Amino acid sequence: MATMESTLHASPAKRAKGGSFLIEECEPRDVITPEDLSEEQRQIAKTATEFARNEVMPAIREIEAKNFVLTKGLLRKAGELGLMGVDIPELYGGMGMDKVTSAVVAESVSQQASFSTTFSAHVGIGTLPIVWYGTEAQKQKYLPKLATGEWIGAYALSESTSGSDALNCRTRAVLTEDGRNYVLNGEKMWITNSSFADLFIIFAKTEGEKLSAFLVERNTPGFTIGPEEHKLGIRGSSTCPLILSDCRVPAENLLGEAGKGHHIAFNTLNIGRFKLGAACVGGARQVLQDAIQYAKERKAFGKSIAEFGLIQEKLAECAAGIFTGEALVYRTIGMIDAALADLDPCIPGASHEIEKRVEEYAVECSIVKVWVSEMLQMVANHSVQIHGGYGYVEEYPAERAYRDARINPIFEGTNEINRLIITGWLMKRAMKGELPLMAAIKQLMDEVISPSLTDEEREGPLAGEDKMLAQAKKLGLFAAGAASQKYMLNLADQQEVMGAIADCAIEIYAMESCILRAKKLIDAKGEAAAGAAVAMAQFYAAQAMQTVESSGRKVIAAVAEGDMLRTQMAIVRRLAKHDPTNTIALGRQIAHHVLEAGRYAI
Ligand SMILES: Cc1cc2nc3c(=O)[nH]c(=O)nc-3n(C[C@H](O)[C@H](O)[C@H](O)COP(=O)(O)OP(=O)(O)OC[C@H]3O[C@@H](n4cnc5c(N)ncnc54)[C@H](O)[C@@H]3O)c2cc1C
User: How far is it, in rounded angstroms, from Cα 7 to Cα 37?
Assistant: First the structure.
């Protein structure tokens, strides 16, 4: 792969407006799905998968025992294969590929959670800020080393007193009188890759409350790495505090503009979030494969436990979750690629434009992060249950997977913070008139009070799900409209309501993404050959509809009372009315499919 010519794929995805999925219909041809990968991307996926299978998986014990010499060696091998330079322009020793390819690598490498964390921190938050915001000299100095794995990167934003509240950090950087150095004082907490990273992107306050980012090399005087944390999971990754004590950093190591570090911090996290989503999908596939293998082997009551309906139901939930997770990740990345396709990251001023275009999809990136991290937790939980007592002991992989999965709702912005971002961002854009959400809400409010509210009849193999999706969108808008009418600009103070609206948006996007993917597969292969995918989409859509309905009810119950409550609940019931889906039959169909394949397959 290292010799492969780099290519910027122009994404065929539609460059939709961020958040528009709530108010617009989307066609299968407008989205990217894993089935759309090019031959070159499939080859890269194969290289990354084989690397993980042949090099990383056999070394699990050593990795988990924190043999960082071995981990660094594996990173170096990944570098030799070209896997570390996917996001780095060719000019600086990378492959300069699109974000879909970057997701392909993230999910294919991520069969083992500790190594996946190490790898993702390096290629994502530890490298991308330099690609996007670095000066020419910084790029030339650092990117070639980061692309090969000769140097490892880390990203240090969190502090012991400020994680979610990152802008409140206390580390300070003061420019010396001669203007040649910044002197950094403070501490950072929970920094991934610390034990062996060579280059740290460190955020500190300059000029009062303004945040700036600095490139700090490991051996800089005044910079100390603290001891390893003893963690619940991802024990083979390195997590340490950092201490900065009169640490002098050359002024030319300021990354981006002084006082604009928050742009770097948050924009990088948007990309970090979709990469985390891709990595969770890769992890979930491995966990399900272990669960399937065990379920087939374990006998109880004279049968393989894989024959029991309640075990099959869990396998189906996992497979439908992975199918939907893949759909979410690639749809989102496809839109970001479409937005970045005509932009050369090396031209002056590109960072501002990249920031603007990626930020457009902040809500989708947060949805991917929340939904996929919770899906992986569900898969890991089911795997422990399927393993029974063996799921609770270290001898089997289910125990480690369960512990490992727990970190994902915490880092890259906790899932609470991401839920608040989803609703807050949608409402902010609606208020500013950047997304015609208010007009859609108004139209819906007029429609729902009309006695002749009818649902459009749909046709085709997923007609029932299409109808359900249209209703879910209305329900979500109705809940958002009722809440914004009641609380106006004070909605942000009602976090539980914000969370419930976010859950509606999350499930609508997930539901639509899996339906679109299944339709695309029908178009490509025919209904019979796409049977498993259709079953997974139907199975998941039914589950998502329940969440949208219960979240909608929760909002209405909080915002209305008396006659108004009764009227609004009647509207919710009308909007949520749908024919029940036979999820038992679908679950069995899906389980048989993956059991026969011996792994997640569509
Ligand atoms: C293994 C590991 C690796 C990490 N790697 C890195 C790294 O490489 N670089 C880095 O910079 N950081 C890293 N972190 C830090 C991580 O990003 C933070 O832990 C995370 O952002 C949460 O911050 P916190 O721990 O201070 O929790 P807090 O912010 O104190 O949150 C505690 C709880 O309160 C909730 N909460 C906080 N604010 C609000 C609010 N406004 N509304 C509602 N709920 C709220 C949170 O959701 C959470 O449930 C890592 C952490 C771990 C555990």
Answer: 13
pLDDT value at residue 265:
93
384 vs 4, higher pLDDT: 384
pLDDT reading at 3 higher than 60: no
What is the arithmetic mean of pLDDT over 421-434? 94
3-state DSSP percent of the chain in helix, strand and coil, to 5: 60, 10, 30
Tell me the one-letter amino acid at 478.
F
Query: 249 CB contacts (<8 Å, ≥6 apart)?
Result: 173, 181, 182, 183, 184, 214, 215, 216, 220
CA-CA distance, 31 to 513, in Å (whole number)?
8
pLDDT, tens digit, 9 for 90 and up, residues 358-372: 999 999 999 999 999
Strand partners, 187: 243
DSSP H or E segment with residue 236: none
Whole-Å CA distances, 145 to 55, 191, 433: 22, 20, 45
The number of helices, as runs of H, and strands, as runs of E, in the chain is 19, 10
- If you search the block for the tokens 């948007």, which residue do you land on? 270
Q: Whose CA is nearest to atom 37 of ligand 1?
A: 164
Q: What distance in Å separates the CA atoms of residue 169 and residue 242, rounded to the nearest whole number?
A: 14
Structure tokens at 178: 């001669």
Q: Which of 317, 364, 399, 412 is catalytic?
A: 412
Ligand 1 pocket, 6 CB below 6 A?
Answer: no
Structural tokens at position 277: 């989503």
- Report whether residue 164 contacts ligand 1, using a CB cutoff of 6 Å: yes
Give the distance, in angstroms, between the CA of residue 435 and the centroid of all CA atoms in the same chain: 23
- Give tens-digit pLDDT for 286-326: 999 999 999 999 999 999 999 999 999 999 999 999 999 99
Tokens of 405: 């999965």
Report the SS3 class of residue 582.
coil
Q: Which pLDDT score, from 0 to 100, does residue 11 have?
A: 56
CA–CA dist 385, 391 (Å, integer):
7
Give the pairing of strands 153-156 and 199-206: parallel
Of 458, 451, 485, 461, nearest in space to 555 by CA: 485
How far is the C-alpha of 11 from the C-alpha of 34, rounded, in Å?
13
- Longest CA pairwise span in the chain (Å): 81
Tell me the per-residue pLDDT of 68-79, one tens digit each, with 9 for 90 and over: 999 999 999 999
Distance between CA 397 and CA 401 in Å, rounded? 6
Whether 200 lines ligand 1, by a CB cut-off of 6 Å, is no
Pick the closest to residue 599 from 284, 377, 348, 269 (CA basis): 284
